[in-house]
Amino acid sequence: MTTKERYRRVIEYFSVAMPTAESELNYRNPFELLVAVVLSAQCTDKRVNLTTPQLFEAYPTAHDMAKASAEEIYEIIKSISYPNNKAKHLAALARQLVERFGGEVPSDPDDLQSLQGVGRKTANVVGAVLWGREVMPVDTHVFRVAARIGLSQRAKTPLATERQLERGFPSELLPIAHHWLILHGRYTCLARKPKCEACGLTEVCKYYQQNIKKEPKG
To answer: Which of 65, 101, 140, 198 could form a disulfide bond with 59, CB atoms 3.0-4.6 angstroms apart?
Structure first.
């Protein structure tokens, strides 16, 4: 099977199995999404969603959070991963939003990446979710699933995977394809024990064909 054919089959499958795919982070506006995505680094969306209601009640806007210290933010987010660093990032990020962008989240990717704690993946997630930007944010789920299925070939870094996926998927599908791969990795193609028996992609999946299908039964 060619890589092009594999992409076609994957698109056909997800278009039926997951016609609606979107972020599982809870947010009501661009500021809340940006904060939630920063908090989600190496942390589950579920944990972030348990944390952000209190955070956004205390600091509903960038202007409000800009007045807070990292120590005050830490007390609210201390149950998530790397709370010290993330508290510092959020305090600085909020001040930068106020000082440079009037408290609004900028849509320009370079402006986003200039903010404290916002790297390429975070900027791409925000751009894809808020503005349908045709980009492919690559987190651990996307990196793993793309390699297992065979959508990426010998990609050693998230950036390499990103570039291959952006070439493989039609550009207009990139925002939803990002969520297809994340959700598939989160609920089916698990890191330690993928649920291949519940997967509809086994016929095109390199990992299944090479590692599972050949296993002796019984």
So the answer is: 65
pTM of the predicted model as reported, rounded to 2 decimal places: 0.88
Check: CB of residue 206 under 8 Å from CB of residue 149.
Answer: yes
Active-site residue, from 4, 139, 156, 193: 139
4 as an active site residue: the answer is: no
The catalytic residue among 45, 111, 121, 195 is 121
Q: pLDDT digits over 151-182, tens only?
A: 999 999 999 999 999 999 999 999 999 999 99
DSSP 129: H
Q: Which CATH architecture has domain 30-131?
A: Orthogonal Bundle (1.10)
Question: Where along the chain do the CATH 1.10.340.30 domains lie?
Answer: 30-131
Structure tokens at 109: 């990717």
Tell me if residue 139 is catalytic. Answer: yes
CATH of domain 3-21+136-212: 1.10.1670.10
Instruction: Give the whole-angstrom CA distance, residue 71 versus residue 149.
Output: 43
CATH 1.10.1670.10 maps onto the chain at 3-21+136-212
DSSP per position, 86-119: HHHHHHHHHHHHHHHHTTPPP-SHHHHHTSTT--
Q: How many CB atoms lie within 10 A of CB 102?
A: 10
* Percent helix / strand / coil, the chain, rounded to 5: 60, 0, 40
